[in-house]
Structures
1.
Amino acid sequence: MTITNQTRAVVLPELTEASEDRRTLRRAGRRGRGGAGGAAGAGRDQRMPLAVGSTAVLLLGALYCLLPVAWVVIASTKDASELFSTFTFAPSTHLWDNIVELTNYRDGLYWRWMLNTAIYAGFGAIVSTYVSALSGYALAKYTFPGKGVVFKVLLMGVLVPGVIVAIPQYLLLAQVGLTNTYWSVLLPQLISPYGIYLARIYAAAAVPTDIIESARTEGAGELFIFHRIALPMMGPGLVTIFLFQFVAVWNNFMLPYIMLGNDELFPITVGLSGLLNQGASLPAMYTLVITGALLSVLPLIVLFLVLQRYWRVDLAAGAVKA
Amino acid sequence: MTATVATPRSGAGRGAGRSATRRPAGRRSATRRHLTPWMMLAPGIVLFTVFMAAPILYTVVLSFQKEMVKGLGLGSGAKTRTFAGFENYVATLTDPEFLASVGRVLLYGVILVPTMLGLALLFSLLLDARRTGAKGFSRVSIFLPYAVPAVISSLLWGFLYLPAVSPFYWIFEQLGWDDVPSLLSPGLVIFAIANIGLWGGVGFNMIVMYTSLKAVPTEIYEAARIDGASERQIALRIKVPIIMPALIMTALFSMIATLQVFAEPTTLRPLTNSLSTTWSPLMYVYRDAFTRDDIYSAAATSVIIAVATFAISFFFLRVVQRRAFGQED
């Protein structure tokens, strides 16, 4: 029960946006009434002086969270000697040199890692979202014997820590000769019990059964209904599932660390961790690591800020549009 | 798995039972409708079976086995697997190195989880408070670290901990404090790792709590205000109890995550001598499996960690639910 409550809270931010609007409206209304009635109450509400203390606490939190990001931006402009000699937040002019050096490192190995990360996290998350949508829709919109068992088994999968199965996954894939390939990192992460669980909630909430029924009466096939009617309605929810899965893959360090031996297949995280290891004996590597960290985080931050918009799209709007 | 096998049969049986009363066309569509959900579930079920269920079963099987070496141990037939009973489990559970790693991770959790959730709750309440400013900026900034993977955040903080790079040590130097110990020294490295966890996790938990705060109808607060409750009283007496389910779930997920800490200490190792190869239980598993080539022992340790995770989740939910939801009886 608690799981449902919490997940809904995470997953349905669009509902809260609506409630925020409602809140502002009501406050405006109350202000009007307050003007006519209790003058003191209205006055207090209208001015609403900023609470300096709580604003300061919040800004301190923001500062703490931005500190390492600000540092990496500045540190990537320094050359190897400046890194350890000049003041932390004193910028220098070597950003372009560092990027060139990083690009030249073993014939552009770094950009290969970026491409690999895009394949693992991007392509992996898209396929995983599709698989989740398919399963979640089937669990939400059909009644069939065995449905309860399937859902319960999948739900148990949510609780199984993914890293625990990483080593046996390695051993099993080694037996079919798939370790040290793209597949060894892609395939195990295509299944996301949590994604299926979310997709089921979305399908149940966003796809009205009447619409499915009327499409059936008009002779539409089940897969046609899923692809052309249900998928677009589940759109905003699927973006959320995609984001969760994208972050999960991009964050999963242990699986590629175990599976891959060839550094041309590494994602950025394993690659940078290896570079840092070399830095222990070769400090010049540190500037490469820092510049590499900056360049790898930037696209993700941009993706996050851009996709944040999608988290607010109203579920109801999706259904009306379709 | 039994369900997969059993259901097409029972589905067909049901279709056959209906065929007496329905026209052939109706029967065909009914059967099709039973098969469609299974077709849609097929990719998920296959992937789940191959990449989750099978590895879990395989781990359990391996954990009860060991390798026997015949003769000189040369040639392909020299090594055979035999049943080991609970030998691997006993070996892990009596290994002081494993117990030390468990102790470290428990301490890590005790430091990290309350701090992270406390700050997340504080920030979410401030975001929800009426008179706080800079909300949009703060919300995005505090959530931003969620987009940074653990390896990269460990890398960034790792450099910020190095006295030669860190701005804090520069400040200490200006103040004339010379002997401030490095966070990467043996006694403090656990705080260094907890800080990385805090940085990466506080924003996500804040968003979870903030979202459930936003879902509360404002009439409740209006009523409390009319009754003369202060903003602080509303926050502590109304908002916190109302979002208790979200707090419980974030606590549970945070505890599970701390038990699995791996990327942070592994990334920090090149920067300090304070981290052993068995600092956390998962690092211990990794060492057994890949440095020592002892997959049987690694499997047993994995099972122990998984069972402990389940036990802790279950116990936590039991205790908390009795406390939070059992007040009526």
2.
Amino acid sequence: MVDPLISNLMSTRDIMMTIKMKKGSPHIDKIFKYVAIGAATYVLAIIAMIVFNLVTGSAQVWQQEGISFLTGSDWNSVEGRESYGAFPYIMGTIVNAGIAMLIAVPLSFGIAMFLSELSPKIMRTPLAMIVELLAAVPSVVYGLWGLLVFRTYIQDWIETPLHNLFGDQSIIFAGTPFGLDILTASVVLAIMIIPTIASISKEIMLAVPNSQREAAYMLGATKWEAFRLAVLPYSKSGLIGATILGLGRAVGETMAVTMLIGNATGAAAIPTSLFQPGQTMASIMANEFAEASSGGLHLAALVGIGLILFVMAFAINVVAHLLVAKVVKSHEGAVLA
Amino acid sequence: MITPEQRAEFRKHFRYNVGRRLVLDKIVKCIVFICVIVAIVPLISILVNVFSNGAAALTWNFLTQVPGAVGSDDPGGIGPAIQGTLVLIGLSSLIGVPIGVMGGIFLSEYGNNRFGRTVRFFNDVLAEFPTIVIGVFAFVLIVLTVGNFSVWAGSFALSIVMLPIIMRTTEESLKLVPVTYREAGYALGIRRYRVVFTIVLSSARSGLVTGILLAVARIAGETAPLVFTILGSSQFISDLNGPVDALPLRIWRLSSLPYDSAVTQGWGAAFILIIMVLSINIGVRYIFLRNKEKTFIKFKKLGAVS
């Protein structure tokens, strides 16, 4: 008679054997792993292909213009007199994103501070959700709203009074306010990047251990002092990362800016006044693409601008991710390798 | 040695200081509260305008007809744009979702090494790329090579936009599945691929679906990659190798026309687009708020949800 315990063991082994036998050849695990690796490699391949295609697509303009593609400000697509310089658009992107950052960063930090430090628990989730919904609104809807609604407000309430006050003495407020200019584009751009910076900053501030705040309170600090002395130093590098991430979005934002910036070309697009139509790298690509799509030097020039924008955005994002990753790390989870 | 006089002086100083500090605290609180209000006002203004102006444009013909001739009395509808957006979302999901999910599986199950970290890093960087650059890339790679604008080129560009989002959210949801589940599977002698597919993926189902839905909401509103790849059209799709219309693209084209009817149509198209995007976003949040899932909070920390 077989011991019941042993027969039990036998049957378990049988079960295990049958499961193992049913699951096909042992190679299938390897195949699965290689498919997964392939999918991951696809991402790297895409980035490599983006670089390759942008370089080959714009080779013509680099040969023709050389370094003056970066420094020149002529922009002429008439055949026979073709000349391309991206300098005004590089400046336009920097100025546009810069003004947007000036508006967005303080506001975002304020929102993040409210959500992480001051807000009552009940309000925190709905408010955070509203801020995040701002980020979900498509760029083209911001553009439409800016064009048809916001433009009249900013023209009547901000630009005209500023122009009347300082207009002729100053450079930055020179020019008749028309509503479709660098200022409008920058303000709408600021509204668009606030949710990005605010929600990341909030997470970074919430990641500061409560003991830090409690220590400050114990010493008699007010809420603001606890924030300034305990939370800010702790989350500094993360906040800088969030800001740079917002800058990355601002630099690459296309549709809303295209619809609002007024679309100047050539030397006229070098930004001097807030009330002057400008042009960014992204917006000139979207604007002139229809005329250039047949090919030739014009197309190469637009792809070349794409390459400059790519390099800029890539550098910004690498820095931002290095800074943010330091602070917000995911510790939990099961990684089997 | 502090004399009583000095002590009195300090006390006076602190008392004076406490008042000032409390006032400063109040001022900062007010400023911060104003920041929140300032951020919410544009959202309200956008929603009010889109809903009030857009609802006026909604008719059955508007939703189903092809656009009329520019400037004519009969403005027609945005039928091709709605159809085009749905087809583009479907096709780009066909490309983006399998690769994204497999990539996420790699990062979570096999990605604890140098290669995994590299992929994760570049994936995060790709997620923040200017989408117009991706559009130019798809244009040079597909449109220039093949010779015409096509649905495929647009879907390819959009799949690159959604890929990093799906990959990251998949990875994070899979990581939330406890190791013990996997070990239980291995103990039964189940092969690894089956453990991943039957145990891990089904435990992480809700997170996976959320990631995919958020990626869909994101690409539904993308305009910049489409400008370079699908060109726009005023007809319904007859050929996947031909140009096609999409809602965001149609809004952009309409906004540049100087006719009142075009403006009304633009609001109408924006209304439909925003309903699509916001309903996905709010729906996903509502479900997660009710289930109190950790996944979503994690997605937010990554900035994947925005």
